[in-house]
Amino acid sequence: MVCLVLIVLLTSGTVFAQGSQPYHFGFKKSKDGKLPSIAEEGFMATVQKHEAIFLGDTEQKELYLTFDNGYENGYTAQILDVLKEKKVPAAFFVTGHYVKDQPDLIKRMVSEGHLVGNHSWSHPDMSQISVNRMKEELEKVRQAVSQLTGQESMPYLRPPRGIFSDQVLRASRELGYTNVFWSIAYRDWDTKQQKGWSYAYESVMAQLHPGAVILLHSVSSDNAKALAKIIDDTRQQGYEFKSLDQLKNKHYH
């Protein structure tokens, strides 16, 4: 029996197997309270089809705080202190390196009621690896966190580097994962380009909108210093921080 493999030829001349065309997550940022949009990015239908998270309920003043933890730079304990003081739930997406290097912080995240999500073992571009390799990347993280915390389930995934494909979303969903993207972010991961807590604060507050999924990187000293004020001032505007487990209405724009 001959299997016909459909291919997609992009204008760049690159050929991809069907479903493996890579996308790099991006969005039109929120400004002046208007909702952000992925309508012009070319992947909205793919994200929606696989029920990945971009926005929560845009009719409600709810916020979802998420952190990417590729490696530890000395600020996560401070972030956890603020979250504990302010009684704010968060999701931390961790790599294999982070799990091996910071077992005590992983335990603390779980014990203080936060979600620990999967960010892959070695942070590869998952659109360029086999499905079997992707499964291994995700399972190693899940098992390592489970061994540390006793937490068996790990329902949330953030694709490394924000790169994904239809195949990545489909295969990970079959493994029980919900892919979590974001609707508020700024260039905060470069530790050599920290610009002060007020820059972090303004970068987040300028994009604020109902149903927002906020992405922050825990390596940023600016984020650690700005977090308490971000929480206080968004609450003053009537926003409520919720856990991803409470996100029931997914919106796409």
Q: Could you spell the SSE succession in H and E letters?
A: EEEHEHEHHEHEEHEHEHE
Q: Helical proportion?
A: 25-40%
Calculate the terminal CA-CA distance, rounded to whole Å. 43 Å
Main beta-sheet strand count, sense and barrel state:
5 strands, parallel
Discrete helix count: 8
- Mean pLDDT, rounded to whole units? 92
**Which structural class best describes the helix and strand composition?**
alpha/beta
Shape: globular
Strand content: 15-25%
Radius of gyration (CA) equals 18 Å
Uncertain runs are 1-17
In total, the number of strands is 11
Describe this structure in words.
With 253 residues, the protein is of the alpha/beta class. The chain is 34% helix and 16% strand. The chain is built from eight helices and eleven strands. The strands form four sheets. Strands 4, 5, 6, 10 and 11 form a five-stranded parallel sheet that branches. Strands 1-2 form a two-stranded antiparallel sheet. Strands 3-8 form a two-stranded antiparallel sheet. The longest helix has 19 residues, at 131-149. It is globular. The model is unreliable at 1-17 (pLDDT under 50). InterPro entries: Glyco_hydro/deAcase_b/a-brl, NODB_dom, Polysacc_deacetylase_ArnD, Spore_PdaA. Residues 61-242 form the NodB homology domain. This is Delta-lactam-biosynthetic de-N-acetylase.
